[in-house]
Every structure is written in structure tokens, then in C-alpha cells.
Specification:
Order of helices and strands: HEEEHEH
Number of helices: 3
Strand content: 15-25%
Shape: globular
């Protein structure tokens, strides 16, 4: 079956983002993404996305990047456990093709699973 990216799998409130930024005990980043994570009190992970206009000028590109992150997150959800994760796109990310982004994200998830899932 298709795992949809449901509303309860999203961080929607500014306060939820703030909680991750303030309480972040767990971080994975590379050239294109920074991911911050904090344990939540659910059994499933939630994702928040930050791809700023400063990092990526064109809306089309921002949307493509967000789609990639959501898709990748959806596939990895079962392994991520109860984490609230904010993924931040870094400048220059729009130069990357989808394959490069998918690969970068896999590494980020793997690192988060290693470093955070245990906490």
C-alpha cells in the first residue's frame, strides 16, 4: 500500500518548529541539508520543512526540493520512530538533481536513525 504523507506526519504549527529548534539534541547535516530532530511522544515521526527564499530563489525549485524531501521521508518513516524532524535546505541545493537530493536525504535519515532513534 501507499504510505501517504498525512497531516499528522507534519509539523504545522510555528510552536512545533520552535520546539525542535530549541530542544534539538540531535542533528545531521551535509552540503545540502541540515536536519534537526527531537523525540516526540508518538510512535511515528513528523516532518517540518524549511527551504527559504534566500537559499533557493525560484518557487518552482523550492517546491521540487520539498517534494523530494517529503517523498524520501515517506519512504523512511517506519525506521524513523518517534521523532519530530525539521529539514532545512541549504543554499545551492537547487543546483542538485533529484537523484542527488534523494541520496543526500538517505544519508541524513541514516544518521538521524543512528544518533537519535536510540535517545
Amino acid at each position: 500500500g501507499v504510505t501517504r504523507f498525512r497531516r499528522q506526519a507534519r509539523l504545522t504549527e510555528p510552536a512545533e518548529f520552535k520546539r525542535v529548534f530549541d530542544g534539538c539534541r540531535c542533528k545531521a547535516s551535509d552540503r545540502w541539508f541540515t536536519a534537526l530532530a527531537i523525540p516526540n511522544d508518538r510512535e511515528s515521526p513528523r516532518l517540518g520543512l524549511v527551504v527559504s527564499r534566500k537559499a533557493v530563489r525560484r518557487a518552482v525549485a523550492r517546491n521540487r526540493i520539498k517534494r523530494q524531501v517529503r517523498e524520501s521521508f515517506r519512504r523512511t518513516q517506519p525506521q524513523l520512530g518517534g521523532l519530530d524532524i525539521v529539514v532545512i535546505g541549504r543554499p545551492g541545493i537547487d543546483q542538485q538533481d533529484n537523484k542527488a537530493l534523494a541520496l543526500a536525504l538517505e544519508h541524513i535519515w541514516t544518521r538521524l536513525i543512528k544518533t537519535c532513534a536510540g535517545s
